[in-house]
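Summary for the steering committee. The consortium agreed at its last meeting that each partner would contribute one worked example illustrating the joint modelling workflow. Our contribution is presented below. We chose a case with several input lines so that the handling of multiple components could be demonstrated. No manual editing was applied between input and output; the record is shown as generated.
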Amino acid sequence: MVVGLGPGPAEWMTPEASAAIKAATDVVGYGPYVERLVLRTDQRAHASDNRIEMDRARLALRLAAEGRMVAVVSGGDPGVFAMAAAVFEAIEGDLQWLKLDIAVAPGVTAMQAAAARLGAPLGHDFCAISLSDNLKPWAIVERRLRAAADGDFVMALYNPASKARPTRITQAFDLLRTLKTTTTPVAFARAVGRADETLTLTTLGEADASLADMATLVVIGSSETRVIARDGARPWMLTPRAYGVRR
Amino acid sequence: MVVGLGPGPAEWMTPEASAAIKAATDVVGYGPYVERLVLRTDQRAHASDNRIEMDRARLALRLAAEGRMVAVVSGGDPGVFAMAAAVFEAIEGDLQWLKLDIAVAPGVTAMQAAAARLGAPLGHDFCAISLSDNLKPWAIVERRLRAAADGDFVMALYNPASKARPTRITQAFDLLRTLKTTTTPVAFARAVGRADETLTLTTLGEADASLADMATLVVIGSSETRVIARDGARPWMLTPRAYGVRR
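What follows is the complete predicted structure of the assembly.
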């Protein structure tokens, strides 16, 4: 089973995911996700580095083929920029694994946790775009940012920066500033649900790309997205259900 | 608290959502969502019709202002085409409610449940688009479908058809057939997680719009989305993590 652990806290992990971890003989995943779990001594943990999703997927499938009950864990939702695609790619590459009993357990993904904290920024049509160019050309990222601006979608930007490529989000902001008004609300949601959670609400004109790291989700508003100021607290961010009403 | 109950089964409802329901003195929501819950005799249920989100939001805020502990429930994630936006719109309309202690509890939304059953169709960048034109002109729906096709996003289409407007999805398919190849994988995911769950995998060329109703989520692949055939079972649907590799 490919299992989504949610963004971090136990209160956001589904009962299905908890049951899958409990039932597993083997837990396979990126180190920090595996370490988040309290496993029994009869359960085997297979923690690995971030960059080797395919090796991890194949290890999980080999273990399952040996008859083990395997949980492949992802933070958030395994279907959103996470392990589900890698597992099915591995199956496509070795069709003997098609016989295995595979299932996916969905989870709350980072943009939903960020949205919950911010108010209702995803209240209307939206896109999720990974700025990682490890497995795709930057040109397709640009094409999608342009299309998302053309469609006036709210955008949830995953993987805005990494140690290897800290400037992706800078490039994205530079492009979006040519396509959208500078007053567009922008939020940086970092480590939502964890002890070091940080939320910053700003505008496209003033957004400081250095606030984004690997643990950050960036939300860019549509033309309808607005903020509701509060005394002594961060404003709420709202994309209303109606479109074009104020025009 | 604006609470996401997930797509239906208890195994997809977060512990946070369960705790919020337990702690509530009043539960406000669309009838079928409120009926899904087992409430105590000391808890008040306020079930209402689907079309009156703003009345429901204002009722919840009035109750909270009276000092009640209110859970406003949505199926799926309240931040995705659900009650969170209505609640913040109501607050914007009557700023005395800004003083209330408001929070949002995210949940698994329909596209994630559908994706989990289908394999990994959302494995790369994607859009979520509601085809409802109750609160927006159809022109913006068309603009977004065009933009999503231009950006080669996977699309998750919510509210593809209703009793009042059964032909939205037909219009969407007609438009998308002019923009994407007829072999693009398309999935209809109906009532995922419920007893009457139905999944249908087809192509854009052959998709039968009459399969979509109010309980259906429609997934349209990108140019990279493909299927993995299985003996005696529905194929898996996969959008790989890499882009342009086969070009």
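Chain A has a mean pLDDT of 95. The CA atoms of residues 16 and 195 of chain A lie 25 Å apart.
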